[in-house]
Amino acid sequence: MTAQFRAELLKLRSTRTNLGLFSALLGFVLFVVLLHGFSLPVEHISRRSDQLHVVFGWAALLGSLFAALLGALAITDEFRHGTIRPTFLVTPQRGRVVVAKVWASMLIGSVFGLIAAAVAIGVGSAALATRGLEIRLGGGDYALLLVGCAAAAALWAAIGVGLGAVVRNQVPTVVGICAWLLFIESLLLGDVGLVGDVGRFTPGALGKAASGQDPLLAPGLAVFLLALYTAAAVAAGWVATTRRDVV
Amino acid sequence: MQVAHENLNIFACTDSLWDTANEHWSPQMHQDNRPQHTLPRHVRMRVTGAAATATEPPLPDPVVRVSSLTKRYGEFAVVEDVTFSLDPGTVTGFLGPNGAGKSTTLRLLLGLAEPTAGEARVFGRRYRELDEPARRVGAVLESNDFDPGRSGRNHLRALALAAEISPGRVEEMLELVGLTRAADRRVRTYSLGMRQRLGLAGALLGAPELLVLDEPANGLDPAGVHWLRTFLRQFADQGGTVLIASHVLAEVAQTVDQVMIIDHGRLVATARLDELAGRGETLEETYLKLTVKEAS
Fold first, then answer.
1. Do A247 and B113 touch (CB under 8 A)?
2. Which residue of A73, A89, A168 is the best one to mutate when testing the B interface, meaning the one whose CB has the most B CBs within 10 A?
3. How confident is the model at residue B256 (pLDDT cuts 50, 70, 90)?
4. SS3 B83
5. Is B140 helix (H, G, I), strand (E, B) or coil?
């Protein structure tokens, strides 16, 4: 198991794909946080909950999104390029490969979330300070933001591996993850609120709640509920990978 | 089996068999003449129908035993009732037209696909049940199973990590196939021949006793084909077993001891090359007779 984990970690580090994902994550965090920090009217970003939600909180969504893509690529790249064959020839116990990919992706994914939060805090604070606004977040808020974003991104990385293992095809997996987090969940379930309170318990919203962005849902509970989604996705990926043929 | 394994140390030589300076094969450097673990020829070949006499040593267990192997997708049988076994020390050609079921048979043998019926065993077990499969079996199923953005060295290192094989072995294999100088380049920049050699290096990482290769000569230049043939012969002479799927008859005819011909998912012939020669038939004549008749 350790052997497979080390192999998967090397795979994640040895192409430029994940460096590219990481750069894109940083770029998006910078852009979105600066955009909101500088462009929103003062009355929208003066309260603590607003600052947390519309300035700093973007790190949770973006960290989760890019961590999920990292996890999805970790497995769909193998099917796309055929490396899944040598991988399974060396480790025919395919469940071990899936689990190793999950842990390796969670590790790198948590770094994605952590750094996204750190950048958002740094850049967001600078933006608010530049506009002469008082920053109402305290040390506990920052700590929760860092830990919550890291946890959400790690769990989403594992969801990405599970989904990728089920779908196998890279493009639909990536499009599906982006569509879910950026469109379906944010617009239809969250902002538009088509299905009432359900939006609070969707996996993307739970990722945000993990860093304290939902006043009605404790961060610990949010992490626990998100972990249930993760367990389901990983279990589905495990079953799909061990049962289906590789051609 | 372990005896044979330990004797397969030709890979441990650090002298390159390839001219790494210009990425060309240099077969004249192939001068490793250490004592070989060579089984008598009659032991290495399981002669069908011939009764073993009491004075002969018992035949070793087959390395590969495939029984009534069948794979269907819906109603369509890709592989149907295929039975064969491979003995240690043999090089076997697995021939057939495109789509005949060669690749599917190899995938069933190596646990990548599950048979609909029948079974395939390597070293007496299903592939997925082998303890350290990379140390028993090396396989190249496609010539391009690499991430184009990963270097050749990192490709091998990832496999070595998963199989718990030392990094030193990775360097030895890179040297063996002449890719040391190209090892840090991304595979994207490799020629087809270089990819074939990288695939072979990956298959040999664990010093396996059985090699399963699908079209291994594809993309190799003539010197490379010669090197591969010499290498496989030596591998088998030291007790290793080789199964090569191919449709290039001329190449196979010079490399293998025996052939199996598959067509429309069924094994239509199994013959030793010297038997064919004894009947005055060339491999091509036999192949065409069997596969064209089946097709018409």
1. yes
2. A89
3. very high
4. strand
5. strand
Is the CA virtual torsion B101, B103, B106, B112 positive or negative? negative
pLDDT band at B183 (very low <50, low <70, confident <90, very high): very high
- For A202-222, what is the mean pLDDT? 92
Query: What does each C-alpha distance from A183 to A79, A176, A189, A198, B178 come to in angstroms?
Result: 27, 10, 9, 16, 51
Closest residue in A to B163 (Cα–Cα): A90
B187: nearest CA in chain A?
Answer: A15
* Cα–Cα distance for residue pair B170/B144, rounded to 1 Å: 19
Percent of chain A with pLDDT over 90: 83
- Interface A-B, measured as beta-carbon pairs within 8 A, has a size of 82
- The interface residues of chain B toward chain A in range 199-228, judged by CB-CB distance below 8 A, are 202
The domain spans of chain A are 2-239
Distance CA A83, CA B149 (A): 12
Closest Cα in chain A, distance from residue B54 (Å) = 40
Q: How confident is the model at residue B249 (pLDDT cuts 50, 70, 90)?
A: confident
Amino acid at B33: N
Q: How far is A81 from chain B (nearest CA, A)?
A: 6
- Per the prediction, chain B carries an average pLDDT of 83
In chain B, what are the domains?
59-295 (3.40.50.300)
Measure Cα distances from B158 to A12, A70, A243 in Å: 10, 18, 24
Partner A contacted by B139 (CB < 8 A): yes
Residue A27 structure tokens = 């770029």
Other CB atoms within 10 Å distance of the CB of residue B223:
15
Bridge-based pairing of strands B18-19 and B24-25 is: antiparallel
Provide ipTM, 2 decimals. 0.93
